[in-house]
Task: structure prediction
Amino acid sequence: MHHTVMDHLSMQDTFLHRLDARSKLIAVVVFTIVVISLRRTGVGIIAVSAVGPFAMLLVGRVPLKLAALQIGCLCPFIMIIAISSAFYDRSVVTIAFGAYELNTTQGAIGAVAIFARFAVTMMAIIALSATTRLSDLLAAFSSLGLPKILVMQIGLLYRYIFLIIDRACHMLGARAGRKLRYLGLRRELSTSAAMIASLFATSTQTAQRVSDAMMARGFDGTIRSLKKSTFSIADTVFLAAVCAYMALLLAVKGVI
Amino acid sequence: MAPVISINGFSYRYPDGTDGLYDISLDIAGGEKIALIGPNGSGKSTLLLAMGAFLHGHGSIVVDGVEANKKNAKQIRRAVGSVLQNPDEQLFMPTLLEDVAFGPLNMGLGDEEVLRRSMDALGIVGLDGMKHKAPHHLSAGQKRSAAIATILSMNPKIITMDEPDTSLDPRNRNNLTSLLKSLKQTLIIATCNIPFAAALCKRAVLIDSGKIIADGPVEEIITDEKLMQSHGLETAAIPESIDF
Ligand SMILES: Nc1ncnc2c1ncn2[C@@H]1O[C@H](COP(=O)(O)OP(=O)(O)O)[C@@H](O)[C@H]1O
Ligand SMILES: [Mg+2]
Result:
């Protein structure tokens, strides 16, 4: 379901979609590094850093609800890290909102900051993947020096992860159809293990046949691509804007 | 006319000891359309894989004058395009156009030629309007056509297809039949669908338990009730048109 939506979004035609995948990839990587390097407690600055990816989502016509949903899905994992930070540092800090004062701990602020930082970088990554076709993104990875075989792996993973998910769904469906009651933890565990084993076996057979299919068409380990991506004036403008934004972020980081 | 594929006393045993093929001898002339019929597990897929130099056994397979051994595999696969049974496993690039271009690019052709061939192939199977779609979003019939296009773009002399009619509804199967009829290449089609075989091919080769049981004009073989039933196949009348 999710991949279908992303695929459709990436076929739109906006300023952001027309940019070279490499510019967008570089921008997101640089942005992520800058955001991660910000001071741990800089909650204010993170608000400023959210402006960029937010603008990208708007310009790229990515539904904000969808972005929020995707970030939401990953929240539980980040929450664990964030909460552990809250317990880590308990020195008391006072935050003043005009006349109101709030006593809290350094750790709690840290937790909020980790969370916000995660949301901000996720926003940028979602904006990238919703405005760039996967094939272009893969080509960008490889032209920026990622080993070809790794790029191929990412592409293939993307391609047949759906086959495997599909198979898993079928198996679960078939099992639900035959099983009428809870069988007790031990039997449940052992049938689950058997299912995973069979899923693994069919996956390796699938991999073998996909590899046969590739060999049938003369594959010898190098990916050759049709499209030569082109860098346009729009890319220069975009990258200049990104640079200015990064400079701004780094400049204000000591102030807010 | 010299045969384009010549198989002589070929046998293959799978690593686990299963006999796949036993003493197969078969000559196929250029431009022939052959139906390879037989029940499930009879060895149809194994024979097609052997023709594409994916597995190597005893005896000889000569394709277009070249011995189909490990060393010549790449050359063999330029002559023989193999359309595998499951299109989901044959289509692996992010977009349809890239998938169809994959073969020609690997052949070392220039970009313009690759693009021309790919668009031609997509045109032949009627998918030129969908070139930017992801292959896994196509319907079953479209996937089948797409898998065929990925082989057509390489312009092989010989095309083998493993049960290309499975999971197609009657209309899609009719479309496929007319498409395959229009191809000029030598076609070897494995199928258990007898009406489909009859609509498409003049010659049928019946195999069972890895052996060739009968080889001859399709109408003679598929109307032989005793022969067909003893190998778990249905008989069929020769269709007047391709509507079945
Ligand atoms: N990878 C394999 N390993 C072992 N045995 C196999 C393998 N693939 C097929 N076989 C066996 O070889 C025989 C021929 O199979 P196959 O060529 O797939 O038949 P068909 O395509 O006519 O249904 C069957 O008995 C099958 O079980
Ligand atoms: Mg088979």
Notes: The pocket of adenosine-5'-diphosphate (ligand 1) is lined by residues B 14, 16, 18, 20, 38, 40-46 (CB under 6 Å). The domain at 5-230 of chain B is CATH 3.40.50.300 (Rossmann fold). Chain B has one domain: 5-230. The first helix of chain B runs from residue 44 to 51.
